[in-house]
Prior knowledge:
The chain has 470 residues and is of the alpha+beta class. Helix content is 51%, strand content 18%. Residues 372-373, 376, 400, 402-405, 413, 418-420, 424-425, 430-436, 459 line the site of adenosine-5'-diphosphate (ADP).
Amino acid sequence: MNTRSISFRLVAGYAALLTGIFALLCALLYLDLRYFLENDLLKSQERRARQIASALLAHAPQTGEAYVASQVKDWYEPEVNNRFIRITRGDGTVMYLSGAPKDGGFTPADVPRLSLARLRGESARRLKLADGKTLLVAVLRYPLTAQSSYLVEFGVPLAPVQTMLDHLFLQLVWGLPLAVAVITAGGYWLVRRALTPVQHITRAAEQITHHNLSERLPVSHSGDELAQLSVALNRMIARLDDAFQNSKRFVADASHELRTPLTVLRGELENLMEDARLDAEVRERAASLLEEAMHLSRIVEQLFTLSRLDAGEAQTDWARLDLAELARSTAEQMSLLAEDKGIAITCDANQPAPVEGDRVRLKQVVVNLLDNAIKYTPDNGAIQLRVRAVNSHVLMEVEDNGIGIPPAALPHVFDRFFRVDRSRSADSESAGLGLAIVKSICTAHGATVEAQSKPATGSRFRVELPLAKP
Ligand code: ADP
């Protein structure tokens, strides 16, 4: 799981917030209920204590204490109702003490006594008994005359309330993580669903390169922020497409327009060079200018070729041909150039390798690769040209034992106008367009081209073309 993703961070934050809110609500609910239940219980005990005082003890001098005791027992039935009742005289002697409750929850005789002197009016006591149980007791001091008074204690065990609260506590402790888990899972599902269009947009955007700028990102019909983002990105891609098309058109138009004047210029310079009436020095200068004009012509030709390939030139000369035969004849033509440097070209292309394509363009691939191999291999080096059909492909490799290409430059050798290092180029005519043309021709033929190289050891260029169908 990606912990830095928006979905993870949203769900984690939302789960933490919910856990906090739920825990606070549960704690408030538990404490509030406990306060309410205990308070309510205590109030009813106080009411009963006041009842004993006003209805029975007030008349004790006339009715006698025995009558009061029997009435208390009859009215409240403390043993049956699990209640604790104790009436203490002002001198500390007990006038009435309820018997043991039916459930045996406590022993009335063991309930600690209260010092009468310290008590004023009413109070409540929470008594912890020896066995750990709690008794909630309302205490009332009832002054009968100036000399005599009574202390009425009316209590009930807290156990039933506590049992209920314990049960609630357990339910909350189990219910809270469960509720958080369910809400988190639901939240995760919702967030994933909401962010799915982002994944679609990302995947589509990854696919768009300068080769397919006419494609657009998917736009959902929801009209939400993501749909607006897709529309905005599509507008940006359209503007890029326009700019790209304009620059391509500019290169195509410029190279096309430059061809004719350059041809005229070359012709004029050739005429000047051969004009015997002119000074030798002037003719020498014309020769040097002609060399530059030819260099310029070559670059313009290469740019023109590239712009035609970019525009997807009409495949009128598309035919079935044997790449092995094409490679053999091209290698033979170029062997003269190689021999000048004492380099031997070994051609291993004896099996037929049928492909479909433009013969002129494919020949250009072989020429450019061999030309580079010759250019970047020192005198007396060796070049191998191999062509063979493998499964559904035709593989062509050009390998040399020349100066090689540094690893940092290798990924860029097919870029336009890229040259590893001007000082390495054997001639000043290299413009860094040869391999870019190779790549464009390969792309137009559904082929791939890749370079492997080790500096000072050599390079290998590998072209893989689809085998022509029988
Ligand atoms: P250039 O016209 O400069 O040769 P390319 O596009 O043909 O341009 O090649 C790009 C760069 O790749 C060259 O500048 C050269 O440094 C390097 N390169 C190409 N082929 C080879 C090779 N066989 N051996 C070493 N370096 C090469």
